[in-house]
Amino acid sequence: MRQLEQRILEDGRVLPGEVLKVDGFLNHQVDPDLMFAIGSEFAYLFRGEGITKILTVESSGIAPAVMTGLQLHVPVVFARKHKSVTLIDDLFTAEVYSYTKKTSNQISIAKKFLSADDKVLIIDDFLANGQAVQGLFEICDQAKAEIAGAGMVIEKVFQTGHQMIKDRGVRLESLAQITSFEGNQVHFASETTD
Amino acid sequence: MRQLEQRILEDGRVLPGEVLKVDGFLNHQVDPDLMFAIGSEFAYLFRGEGITKILTVESSGIAPAVMTGLQLHVPVVFARKHKSVTLIDDLFTAEVYSYTKKTSNQISIAKKFLSADDKVLIIDDFLANGQAVQGLFEICDQAKAEIAGAGMVIEKVFQTGHQMIKDRGVRLESLAQITSFEGNQVHFASETTD
């Protein structure tokens, strides 16, 4: 998605450890018009899949997920993060390790909001090691919900999340695919395909 | 806002301690079309105020805030919640006590996203004791930003947040004003004014 790549080049900052900081438009300050364009793109890409529900994880996934839900006219459920939850009967839960924060969290979704009748689209802001997506897969499995696809705003294709989703046989659409960093420079997969 | 009140009557549940649970459309599962309608209403109400930025607090404020930002075409910044942050130079921070969770959190906003040039609209999902709004007021004061208004999706007018905002002289617009609970019944201010 050209508009998104352009914005990453203008406002993103590359930090040590191959971290891309996009807090100016995606995960602290949010550009609602760009989020709407992102939602349009996901809604277009997954329009034929019979999606009944969008899942994401708080907090940075919410804006792109809700904009996609607006254009597919389906509800969005955002998983809550907790340090740990004692077993609660009415929740689906999964463990998610964050490589950037070096902490483990549980994520949870109330059982009443996900069922075997659902065809789920997973939306998130970033795909790197895919821990959050893996956690949402586990929650979908617990609910016996069908996973129709995963839509990632920004993907670092050289990390393990990409392959994890492919291995599971889930359709993956990422709107900006980063292939490498060179100093402060960001390279996209589209550079070689355009 | 009639559509919102209707939805509260259909899907909300009153829990002990005058807690209204609206996790079916606002703060766990989210109805994007309703959020868009809420954003339209806030954008209409505050259209003449010269708003330059919307502030909210993660996570439940994000969906209504981003939908308002979409229709006012201004950026949204969501404050991050932390257990506590060691003093960090580049953050505005405030302490927020949650009566429902009985825990204290710090909220923070990066200094680069808020300045004395901003006219701020604060959006949040719930106004009860107003602790989150108070925290955002403190952050605006630190930034010397002007507070143009506060837009609350649901307000419990009988709790202290309403008066706190009025005392500060800030314009307050709440889309559903709850005046009392009677068992499982919810009463709105609009019942007496319509």
From TrEMBL, chains A, B:
Catalytic reaction list: XMP + diphosphate = xanthine + 5-phospho-alpha-D-ribose 1-diphosphate
InterPro entries on file: PRTase-like (IPR029057), PRTase_dom (IPR000836), Pur/Pyrimidine_PRTase (IPR050118), Xanthine_PRibTrfase (IPR010079)
CDD domains registered for this protein in UniProt: PRTases_typeI
Source species taxonomy: Bacteria, Bacillati, Bacillota, Bacilli, Lactobacillales
EC number(s) on file: 2.4.2.22
Subcellular location: Cytoplasm
Protein name in UniProt: Xanthine phosphoribosyltransferase
Gene3D superfamilies xrefs: 3.40.50.2020
Role this protein plays: Converts the preformed base xanthine, a product of nucleic acid breakdown, to xanthosine 5'-monophosphate (XMP), so it can be reused for RNA or DNA synthesis.
GO molecular function: xanthine phosphoribosyltransferase activity
Annotated 5-phospho-alpha-D-ribose 1-diphosphate binding sites: 128-132
Family, per entry: Belongs to the purine/pyrimidine phosphoribosyltransferase family. Xpt subfamily.
Pathway: Purine metabolism; XMP biosynthesis via salvage pathway; XMP from xanthine: step 1/1
Record carries keyword Metal-binding: no
Organism per entry: Lactiplantibacillus nangangensis
